[in-house]
Amino acid sequence: xxxxxxxxxxxxxxxxxxxxxxxxxxxxxxxxxxxxxxxxxxxxxxxxxxxxxxxxxxxxxxxxxxx
Length: 67
Fold this sequence. Notes:
Blueprint: E1 12-17, H1 26-34, E2 43-47, H2 50-58, E3 63-66
Antiparallel strand pairs: 1-2, 1-3
């Protein structure tokens, strides 16, 4: 059975980088770049999709999210 999502999917989500990628795994750095974030305090507005949510979940300790 598929897991129910807490938030509705389809709108946009605002992601801001709050942590440094220094001394992090290479895949976490690549995920930040994939989200369009590579410097501190940069903000991007992204489509709210399962793929983007997964990327945010991977680097949740380095970003803040606003719906």
